[in-house]
Design goal:
mainly alpha, disordered C terminus, two-stranded antiparallel sheet, 233 residues, 66% helix, 3% strand
Length: 233
């Protein structure tokens, strides 16, 4: 085709109204075709062919005008990009539990203040999440908790947490789990140590009826005190 165009046997033009429309237009170079001895082109036939060509070109342009090429506006592109980023971040967060997500959000809320305007770009957040995929979730959370619990390091960017992740051992993770379990067990053992619990266990000399009577009398004394105070006021 290039040889035909260079030799003027085939003519190329641009009749597109839109700059971004790259449709190519072609027609026969009849003047050049006259020079060919093997092809006879009568004047009337030539004019007829030219008219048909022009008619075809006109119809093509009309069809192109009727077929609206959708314009990609900045607003549409921004909406699509933002939606994709949000979905990408959601997918990267799926590997963490709800409790771990709370730790991650706390970390990012502190980390954003290492930026001039207190905001981390979405592209950077995605890179952070992607970097974390190199480590197990418990290792990531272990490093983030160290960062969160040490305010003196809150001026350090994400590379500081990456360093902790690289150096975290399986023994450290296991030790942390054991300590957490020990704290849970202690809390579970202390949850019944209320005032009423202690009172009941220090008054085992009373039976249920006597204990109930004593409680009623104490309640009456408190009510009288309150009422008396209200009258005095």
């Amino acid at each position: 085709m290039k040889k035909l165009i260079d030799s003027n046997y085939l003519l190329e033009g641009n009749y597109n109204k839109k700059k971004y429309d790259k449709t190519r237009w072609f027609t026969l170079g009849y003047q050049k075709l006259y020079e060919l001895k093997s092809i006879k082109i009568q004047g009337d036939e030539t004019r007829s062919a030219q008219n048909e060509t022009r008619s075809a070109q006109s119809e093509t342009r009309s069809t192109q005008n009727e077929t609206t090429i959708p314009e990609t506006t900045t607003e549409t592109t921004t909406k699509i990009t933002t939606k994709n980023i949000i979905q990408q971040i959601k997918n990267l967060r799926l590997r963490y539990s709800d409790e771990q997500i709370k730790t991650i959000d706390s970390y990012l809320d502190i980390l954003r203040w290492t930026r001039k305007h207190g905001k981390i770009a979405d592209s950077v957040i995605i890179k952070i999440y992607e970097k974390w995929t190199e480590y197990k979730p418990e290792v990531v959370i272990y490093a983030l908790e160290i960062y969160i619990n040490n305010p003196k390091h809150h001026d350090k960017k994400e590379n500081y947490a990456y360093g902790i992740m690289r150096n975290t051992t399986a023994e450290q993770i296991a030790d942390k789990k054991n300590k957490s379990q020990s704290i849970k067990n202690t809390n579970a053992g202390n949850q019944f140590k209320t005032k009423f619990h202690n009172f009941k266990h220090t008054t085992t000399k009373y039976n249920d009826d006597e204990l109930q009577d004593k409680l009623n009398k104490n309640l009456e004394k408190k009510l009288k005190r309150i009422n008396g105070g209200l009258k005095n006021d």
